[in-house]
TrEMBL record:
This is OTU domain-containing protein. The lineage of its organism: Eukaryota, Sar, Stramenopiles, Oomycota, Peronosporomycetes. It comes from Phytophthora sojae (strain P6497).
Length: 267
């Protein structure tokens, strides 16, 4: 492929393992090249729907995790393994398992990094600055991707019970990697300091580059309240628990929780 040339994709509908089409839901899809920032809020007024309301709708509870800068990874682990309880205790076994999931998801992310960058799945400049705290003026695209890969490799290799600096916190690209690695949508309920909430869905679309081969392109959606309620209600009725995280926006630093379900419901 020549420099500057973009791959053209023929896309199939968004993959949805729950049988309910996300394409038909009233969602806002972030187009390739558009910045996707979890810390931003939707434009316009938001109807107040509390985290407690969403948990009641799902028949679930929030499981907290240690605030050590790796709450995103530990919350994801608690959610996908349904570790029911008030707080995840990182004993030796849980630490090893959570670290293993983190390592696998980040290895997957690194393997597809260059292709994802070429398809504008993330903003290379923004991620480069966030991970390296370095000026981008004198760097080529290849140099930026190399630095991003190096930073992600470093993060991949340390345990989830270690303290992590702000540069190593989970961002949109990691959430997308979690969803695509597990091959199922990942929902994130963002809770603002006002108590207002909104719901993102991280998923992927099957895509075929014009030069051949197959690729699953990461997608992030902002669901409106009605669509999220309808989707969650349908999943609960079908006894299919969605994977959901809560991102609590706080002045002192954002923090992830896991959404977990009573074990007797899904034995």
């Amino acid at each position: 492929m020549e420099e500057g040339q973009k791959r053209t994709l023929t896309q199939t509908p968004i993959f949805d393992c729950y049988g309910a089409s996300l394409d038909s839901a009233n969602v806002e899809m972030k187009e390739p090249g558009e910045k996707i920032i979890d810390e931003s809020t939707p434009e316009g007024p938001i109807e107040v729907v509390s985290v407690a309301d969403w948990l009641a709708l799902l028949g679930s509870a929030a499981t907290d995790v240690p605030p050590n800068g790796q709450c995103g990874w530990n919350a994801w682990y608690a959610a996908i393994t349904n570790l029911w309880g008030d707080v995840l205790v990182l004993n030796e076994e849980e630490t090893l398992l959570s670290s293993s999931y983190k390592t696998r998801a980040m290895t997957f992310m690194l393997a597809r990094l260059q292709w994802a960058a070429e398809l504008d799945e993330f903003d290379v400049d923004d991620l480069y600055k966030a991970l390296t705290n370095t000026s981008i003026d004198s760097c080529s695209m290849d140099q930026k991707l190399l630095a991003i890969a190096s930073a992600l490799s470093r993060v991949r290799n340390y345990s989830v019970n270690c303290e992590a600096p702000l540069s190593d916190w989970v961002r949109t690209v990691q959430l997308q990697a979690m969803a695509t690695y597990l091959r199922e949508p990942l929902f994130v309920i963002d809770e603002l300091e006002t108590g207002q909430t909104f719901v993102h869905c991280h998923a992927y679309a099957k895509a075929k580059p014009t030069h051949g081969g197959n690729y699953e392109q990461s997608k992030t959606f902002l669901l409106d309240k009605a669509s999220a309620q309808s989707l969650f209600s349908a999943m609960r009725a079908a006894s299919v628990p969605p994977t959901v995280l809560i991102l609590r926006h706080q002045a002192t630093g954002n923090h992830f929780n896991a959404v977990t379900y009573p074990p007797e419901r899904y034995e």
